[in-house]
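Format is chain and fold; as here:
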Amino acid sequence: MIIKQTYIVDDDSIFVFVLKKLLEKHQGFGKVVDFKNGNEALELLFDKKSGLPCVILLDLNMPLMDGWQFLEELQKSDIAQKIKVFIMSSSIDFNDIEKSKNYTIVQDFISKPINHEKLNKILEYIN
């Protein structure tokens, strides 16, 4: 599968900056668009004029709409099965990891920090 577009949904501007640089060097994630919270990402996802991303890299702890709320809304939609969601969180709480397994749209729970090996794992999973 060729990834044409990737969304990063995370409010940590430093993490997003570094992740975007990693994704650009990696050259496997297509155009990268970032959002500060789940609400912003959902607005664009549900806009019928915009193309859907292949991959969403999702943080859990964000203002306005956190990652769990985002997953609830996305999972209810008709576009949910067209997108691969990977949670990227600094949480190492076993309960968060287990809770993520309740969402069929979540492919994996990846702990921060992110590196090339973890990005390779995402690409392997998709292909």
The longest helix spans residues 13-26. The helical segments are 13-26, 38-45, 67-76, 94-100, 116-126. The longest strand covers residues 84-89.
